[in-house]
Amino acid sequence: MLLVIVPTYNEEACIQQTLDDLARLPHAEFQLLVVNDASHDQTAARVRDWIASHQWGRLLTLDRKSTRLNSSHTVISYA
Question: Which of 32, 39, 45, 67 could be a cystine partner for 57, CB 3.0 to 4.6 Å?
Answer without folding.
Answer: 32
